Amino acid sequence: MRAVVLLLSTYPFVEPRHGGQVRLANVSKTFESAGWEIESVAVYEPESYGERPLGKNDLPFPQLSPYRLFRGRNVPFVNDLLSGEYAIAEDGGFPSIQRVLPRRIDAIHVEQPWLWPLACRIKKMRAYENAILIYGSQNIEAPLKRTILSSYGVSGADDAIHAVDALERQAAREADLTLAVTKADLDVLAAYGAKKLLLAPNGIAPWSASAAALERWRAQLTTAPWILYVASAHPPNFTGFTACVGDSLASIPPDSRLVVAGSVGEHLYRTLAATRWHSLNLSRLQLLWVLQDEDLAAVKSLAHAYLLPIQHGGGSNIKTAEALYSGAYVVGTEAAFRGFEDHLGLPEVSVAKSPAEMQATIRAVLSRPAQSTFSNTNSRKQRDSLLWNCCLAPIPAAVESLVKRARE
């Protein structure tokens, strides 16, 4: 009989787009490849995910639910935190979740801390009292939440930030196994009291583009060297852009472009349109919006350089792994390479420590001839360590050891 793992999240991952979904989809594949049976429940925001493919047990967190209020008031950007309370409430999501639980659960994997209350409630049920609890941390959430709220000018939310901090400390303390994506996060989680820790970095899936897709996108993109920025609409991806790059795209030549793919596009457009250099900025910008996988693979394959304007935060960035894997030039902030410090010696990688240095580096990189070290044997070995099947491989064995101990 195959062991069963229940994956809990605040987003569906049937068709992964943003980094959290991509990581969880690959966690699922890793367990499945190791012979596990996968069950999952996502308590998701329908306004964000309702039109996308859903898992059979995924449950909407209604916009009009009283659980959308934090301690009786409306606090923006904390629906992830509030989803845990909704999920365990008898007048919320728990009755629906209880009906879809499998007869047997050997391990409960909670991706990010938000549904930790649900995992604890499930484990208290007699049928699942021996289930192993796994906390899949993607970053240290409380400082990131504070940064997001501050960037939007949200005040009076300290109690919400404290609640986030308390929840992730609880998850680290109570989990039988805690996963960290960087060594720095691992050290923080250890200080929180994590019993057993495992470093499971963020990675990528290799991509290849068809000849037809490459030809189609060559025709739509400038023939001059251009730099690519791929990101989701996660607020830090655009609120800190000008702090990293400056408020002007003058470092990009008139015949070149900053090519932007992903749902960050409309937000970045507004950010750059609001500067004093708006006309210049918009003339250097080419928005591709959210692309299908085949098209995104072609665009990534054609990029002369990748831009990583990551200001701060915890965890590590999947887009950094993609950029490093590409073999093209990579220009990023110091924060962009959290968790990927071993790759900083690659010849195509440039780290900028200020907006002025970022602008100078972008200008220099776009003036260089196209170059790719993708096929270089030594570099390729280093890049293979970025693949998901390498990054997440230790997880099933670590969980199986804990399950075996629990059974004994």
Structural write-up:
- This protein has 408 residues and is an alpha/beta fold.
- It folds into 2 domains: 4-200 and 392-407, 3-Layer(aba) Sandwich (Rossmann fold), CATH 3.40.50.2000; 211-384, 3-Layer(aba) Sandwich (Rossmann fold).
- 42% of the residues lie in helices and 14% in strands.
- The strands form 2 sheets. Strands 3-2-1-4-5-6-7 form a 7-stranded parallel beta sheet, with helices on both faces. The chain has a 6-stranded parallel beta sheet with strand order 10-9-8-11-12-13, sandwiched between helices.
- Helix 3 (79-88) packs parallel to helix 5 (116-123), helix 6 packs antiparallel against helix 7 and helix 9 (211-220) crosses helix 14 (293-302).
- The model has no long low-confidence stretch (mean pLDDT 95).
List keywords for this structure.
globular; six-stranded parallel beta sheet; 408 residues; 19 helices; Rossmann fold; alpha/beta; 42% helix; seven-stranded parallel beta sheet
CATH architecture classification of the largest domain: 3-Layer(aba) Sandwich
Biggest β-sheet strands, sense, barrel: 7 strands, parallel
- Report the CATH topology name of the largest domain: Rossmann fold
Tally of structural domains: 2
Structural class estimated from helices and strands: alpha/beta
Tally of helical segments: 19
Distance between the termini: 17 Å
Q: Helical percent range?
A: 40-55%
Identify the CATH homologous superfamily of the largest domain.
Glycogen Phosphorylase B
Mean pLDDT: 95
Number of strands: 13
Please state roughly what percent of the residues sit in beta strands, choosing from under 5%, 5-15%, 15-25%, 25-35%, 35-45% or over 45%: 5-15%
Q: What is the radius of gyration computed over CA atoms, rounded to a whole number of angstroms?
A: 22 Å
Give me the side-by-side strand order of the main sheet: 3-2-1-4-5-6-7
